[in-house]
Amino acid sequence: MKSILTNCSPRFLAGLLALAFVTPLFAEEGDAKRGEAVFQQCSVCHQVGPTAANGIGPNLTGVVNRKMGSLSDFSYDTGLQKAAQAGMSWDKDKIFKWLADPQGYIRGVVHDDSVTTKMTIKVSDEQARRDVIAYIATFSGK
After folding, report:
1. How many Cα atoms occupy the beta-carbon half-sphere of 72 within 13 Å?
2. Which residues form the signal peptide (predicted)?
3. Predicted local distance difference test score (pLDDT) of residue 28
4. What architecture does CATH give domain 30-137?
5. Which of the 8 DSSP states describes residue 67?
6. What's the CA gap between 11 and 93, in Å, rounded?
7. E strand segments, the chain
8. Separation of alpha carbons 46 and 20, rounded Å
9. First-to-last CA distance in the chain?
10. What whole-number distance in Å separates Cα of residue 2 and Cα of residue 87?
């Protein structure tokens, strides 16, 4: 069986290879409008925006690049307390991993399998995670 790429020019193949590396960068961006709809599920525990307050979960306004476990008026679980003591901060990549498996993520980054988290919801859909992160980032000034 003959490959369909056998008769392709080197310039075409180079372009195809470049596209393969560039495409994932665009795919990783979230859509804040779709993220607002995803956040409705999060709003059972969290608030975000100018009038947001802590609820079952902490206020997420400004969470992107904020130190983990740093809101003085919220009682954090042992995992985020330990992350705060280590001076860890949230960024979009860390939030993306956290949303996939909060318990597994926090235990991994603080290297302690005994710590816990109040966050029990996992967001398995990668695009939904990107979208909700894009939405909350609009309230983070980042």
Report:
1. 0
2. none
3. 67
4. Orthogonal Bundle (1.10)
5. B
6. 34
7. none
8. 37
9. 51
10. 56
Q: Which of 52, 47, 102 is nearest to 80 (CA)?
A: 102
Q: Which amino acid is at 44?
A: V
In tens, the pLDDT along 2-42 reads 444 455 555 644 544 444 444 343 346 899 999 999 999 99
Q: What is the block-wise mean pLDDT of the chain (142 residues), using blocks of 10 residues?
A: 51 47 53 97 96 96 96 96 96 97 97 95 97 96 63
Q: Supply the pLDDT for residue 142.
A: 52
* DSSP designation for 31: -
Which of 93, 88, 38, 40 is closest to 68 using CA atoms?
88
Nearest to 34 by CA among 119, 135, 136: 135
Identify the DSSP state of 89. Answer: B
Token readout for 64 is: 């992107």
The type of residue at 8 is: C
